């Protein structure tokens, strides 16, 4: 069972980034609380965001410098890998909550409101003319009449875009492993472009939904699940695209080697994660 | 296992001792410092949450409305739960994990030391945010810690504070858990296979998975509350096709594993302490590991037993009743193993052992009342009564909290290098054990007789037991001041503790000096 001798594990000296991160986070959140309570918190939110950005640049910058000066070895690398894997798992569970809400609404609550099963009292007593169907904005027609999003327009195109970007990032990864810098940078640049293209098209889709379909966040349970799922997904795509952009700049600076490029892989894993979530969205939100 | 003698005091690789002054605690990346911060934070929160409990019990001392108005009473029940769960018990366990896991597996520190600092330093901000909601317009959240809509959506200015403090606490827990998993998977000493890990490490390993799997679900649930209130969504609004019961499902999908998050590390602590003072190896090590894992897996398929009365289909009632009862099997294995470990051991009863035995006996009472509650048709009577209050306080106070006390007494000499005052420790145990039963045992009778929970006033036939319960609560609360006194006294001085501290203690942590050097196991020991 004995493992090979690892030598010395790197334990960093004291750091100011976490406390700065906490201050940024709480400032951001307090600003948002002021806004939600009808006050003005924009300045606080902006300040909090600025502090967070400084923190992220500083913290990641320090880790990158340490990595470039060969502070880390295979042992520390494995900790980073484990950290990223379980972080992505926690993100999966975050989406699971919203998918759970979607399935609950489609399989249980809307049919019950329509009078099926043992739980039909609400139907009988309150809304006995309501017929269950999907998409639905509920028996009270919350948000007014709307049209659901057409599956085979922009959403299908976005599926193609995101799947292709998964291909290009893998292509870039293979190029990195073979030491082919030109293909690496090309592949990654295309991936970043496709990522932001996806976000742009998603914004267009939202505009279309709000202005032509009367489909809004307030369109009952369909609008709620639609915008919550696609919205958080879009946010994660944006985050992933920013990560890949940073990695692209690092590639251009010549940061990675064929056998030491954890940051690249972490961003690529994250990218595949948003890709897989999108497939779930495409099937269960847009298509079925 | 062998440890080179010169290794424990080594100052390796250019690392020096702690930074001077207050900044040491703000900037630290050291698992011992961070563990200490967690433990102090949780002790403070224990008294904050405890003060709220005192207000609750003072109001319930007699029927009628005496001291506080009903809305403030509801704020107290809500905040008491949130503070105790997220502020006291969880941080205490994370603090123990921070201190002990690297020492127990022979690791140089936690795997991600900077992240570790952030996991802690989010907490004081999140806690302050939550507590400051007491002072805003409309008061603190008063809809219960379970945050059921539509009631919770009536919260005033405190509402977004509640939501975001839950988010922040969740971020802290997730980062802490990622760190614990990475540490256990990557930093074990050579030769320490998974099945050689001490049980406290095992139980935390499994707890960390539970946390990573469920805290994001809670984050999702409260995010939906936020959008329902401010952004016009209809997740929990039947008029729009949603369902308020949907929140309960999502919440308890988090909430039930959360219950085990609060108790699995306690199982680990008992499994460390009992063998030491019985001077026998733990009975059934493997079955302990498998039982813990089974409990964790089962915890994901039992959540609806919290909502038997909301109008579930009969099939669901049956499924969740049976799956809940299944949990009694691995839990029974654990209790059996602890008892079997003590069987014919050369037992001594120092304070940690007293708390550990108190834990086993009283936690088991909570387990049995849990079995009663698991019976769906019977639960229709118990639901939302004081019987439920008695049940979960038995598993959380003489369960989780007693285990934290036991752990504190057990490892304080290791942490500080000083022995605590054994006489005072034993006094603290007996006061706690007597008063805790005085608080919570009569609540079983109150619940069975029909007293509902979460009310500031009650019918006169409940007066006697409520008075007994309130007297017990004041006694229990005051006894904990003794605990704080003992801890502070031990930190400041006392008889010198040996390295092994306890005669029968096994494990890597006892091979280090008391207190251990600032950086321990910079070179890992080899386990054979």
Individual helix count of chain A? 8
Q: Which descriptor suits the 3D outline of chain A?
A: globular
Q: Name the CATH superfamily classification of the largest domain in chain A.
A: Cytochrome c oxidase, subunit III, four-helix bundle
What is the level-2 CATH architecture name of the largest domain in chain A?
Up-down Bundle
Count of folded domains of chain A: 2
Instruction: Describe the sheet with the most strands of chain A.
Output: none
Order of helices and strands of chain A: HHHHHHHH
Name the quaternary structure.
heterodimer
Number of strands of chain A: 0
Strand content of chain A: under 5%
Would you mind describing this structure in some detail?
The complex is a heterodimer of chains A (288) and B (528). Chain A has 2 domains: 12-71, Orthogonal Bundle (Helix Hairpins), CATH 1.10.287.70; 72-287, Cytochrome c oxidase, subunit III, four-helix bundle (Four Helix Bundle (Hemerythrin (Met), subunit A)), CATH 1.20.120. Chain A has 288 residues and is mostly helical. Chain A is built from 8 helices and no strands. Helices cover 72% and strands 0% of the residues of chain A. Residues 1-5 of chain A have low confidence and may be disordered. By secondary structure, chain B is an all-alpha fold. Helix content of chain B is 65%, strand content 0%. The longest helix of chain B is centred in the N-terminal third of the chain and has 36 residues, at 70-105. Chain B is globular. At the A-B interface, helix 1, helix 3 and helix 7 of A face helix 1, helix 4, helix 5, helix 6 and helix 7 of B.
């Amino acid at each position: 069972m004995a493992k090979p001798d690892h030598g010395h594990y790197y334990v960093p000296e004291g750091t100011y980034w976490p406390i700065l991160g906490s201050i940024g986070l709480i400032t951001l959140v307090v600003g948002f609380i002021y806004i939600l309570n009808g006050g003005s918190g924009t300045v606080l939110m902006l300040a909090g965001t600025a502090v967070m950005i400084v923190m992220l640049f500083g913290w990641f910058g320090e880790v990158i410098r340490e990595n470039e000066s060969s502070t880390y070895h295979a042992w520390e690398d494995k900790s980073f890998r484990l950290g990223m894997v379980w972080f992505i798992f926690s993100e999966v569970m975050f989406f699971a909550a919203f998918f759970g809400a979607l399935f609950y609404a489609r399989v249980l609550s809307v049919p019950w409101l329509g009078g099926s099963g043992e739980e039909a009292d609400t139907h009988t007593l309150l809304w006995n003319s309501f017929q269950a169907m999907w998409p639905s904005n509920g028996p009270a027609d919350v948000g007014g009449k709307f049209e659901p999003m057409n599956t085979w327009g922009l959403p299908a195109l976005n599926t193609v875009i995101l799947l292709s970007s998964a291909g290009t990032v893998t292509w870039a990864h293979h190029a990195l492993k073979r030491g082919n810098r030109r293909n690496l940078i090309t592949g990654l640049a295309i991936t970043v472009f496709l990522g932001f293209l996806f976000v742009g098209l998603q914004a267009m889709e939202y505009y279309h939904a709000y202005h032509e379909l009367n489909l809004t966040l307030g369109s009952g349970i369909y609008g709620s699940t639609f915008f919550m799922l696609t919205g958080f997904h879009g946010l994660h795509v944006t985050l992933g695209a920013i990560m890949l952009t940073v990695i692209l700049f690092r590639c251009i600076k010549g940061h990675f080697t064929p056998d030491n490029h954890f940051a690249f892989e972490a961003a690529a894993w994250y990218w595949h994660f948003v890709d897989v979530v999108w497939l779930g969205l495409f099937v269960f939100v847009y298509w079925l | 296992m062998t440890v080179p003698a010169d290794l424990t005091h080594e100052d390796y690789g250019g690392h020096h001792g702690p930074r001077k002054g207050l900044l040491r605690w703000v900037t630290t990346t050291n698992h011992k410092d961070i563990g200490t911060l967690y433990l102090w934070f949780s002790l403070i929160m224990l008294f904050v949450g405890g003060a709220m409990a005192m207000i609750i019990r003072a109001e319930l001392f007699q029927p009628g409305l005496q001291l506080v108005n009903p809305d403030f009473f509801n704020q107290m029940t809500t905040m008491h739960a949130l503070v105790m769960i997220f502020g006291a018990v969880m941080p205490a366990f994370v603090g123990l994990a921070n201190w002990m896991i690297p020492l127990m597996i022979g690791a140089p520190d936690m795997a991600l030391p900077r992240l570790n600092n952030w996991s802690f330093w989010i907490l004081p901000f999140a806690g302050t945010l939550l507590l400051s909601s007491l002072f805003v317009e409309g008061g603190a959240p008063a809809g219960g810690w379970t945050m059921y809509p539509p009631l919770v959506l009536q919260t005033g200015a405190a509402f977004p504070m509640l939501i975001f403090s839950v988010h922040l606490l969740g971020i802290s827990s997730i980062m802490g858990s990622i760190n614990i998993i990475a540490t256990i998977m990557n930093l074990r000493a050579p030769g320490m296979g998974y099945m050689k890990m001490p049980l406290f490490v095992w139980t935390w390993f499994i707890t960390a998975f539970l946390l990573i799997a469920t805290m994001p679900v809670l984050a999702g649930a409260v995010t939906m509350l936020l959008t329902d209130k401010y952004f016009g969504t209809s997740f929990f609004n039947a008029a729009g096709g949603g369902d308020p019961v949907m929140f309960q499902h999502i919440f308890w999908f988090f909430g039930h594993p959360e219950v085990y998050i609060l108790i699995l590390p306690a199982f680990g602590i008992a499994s460390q302490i009992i063998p030491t003072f019985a001077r026998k190896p733990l009975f059934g090590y493997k079955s302990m590991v498998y039982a813990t894992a089974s409990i964790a897996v089962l915890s994901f398929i039992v959540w609806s037993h919290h909502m038997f009365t909301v109008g579930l289909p009969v099939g669901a009632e049956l499924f969740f009743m049976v799956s809940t009862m299944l949990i009694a099997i691995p839990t029974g294995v654990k209790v059996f193993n602890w008892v079997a470990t003590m069987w014919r051991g050369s037992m001594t009863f120092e304070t940690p052992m007293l708390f550990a035995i108190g834990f086993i006996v009283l936690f088991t009472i909570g387990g049995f009342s849990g079995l009663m509650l698991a019976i769906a048709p019977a639960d229709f009577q118990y639901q939302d009564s004081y019987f439920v209050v008695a049940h979960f306080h038995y598993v959380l106070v003489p369960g989780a909290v007693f285990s934290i006390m036991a752990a504190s007494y057990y490892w304080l000499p290791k942490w500080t290098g000083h022995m605590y005052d054994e006489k005072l420790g034993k006094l603290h145990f007996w006061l706690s054990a007597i008063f805790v039963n005085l608080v919570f045992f009569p609540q079983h009778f109150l619940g069975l007789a029909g007293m509902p929970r979460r009310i500031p006033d009650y019918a006169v036939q409940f007066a006697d037991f409520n008075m007994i319960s309130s007297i017990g609560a004041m006694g229990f609360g005051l006894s904990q001041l003794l605990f704080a006194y003992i801890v502070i006294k031990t930190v400041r001085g006392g008889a010198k503790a040996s390295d092994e501290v306890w005669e029968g203690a096994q494990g890597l942590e006892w091979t280090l000096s008391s207190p251990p050097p600032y950086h321990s196991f910079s070179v890992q020991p080899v386990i054979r």
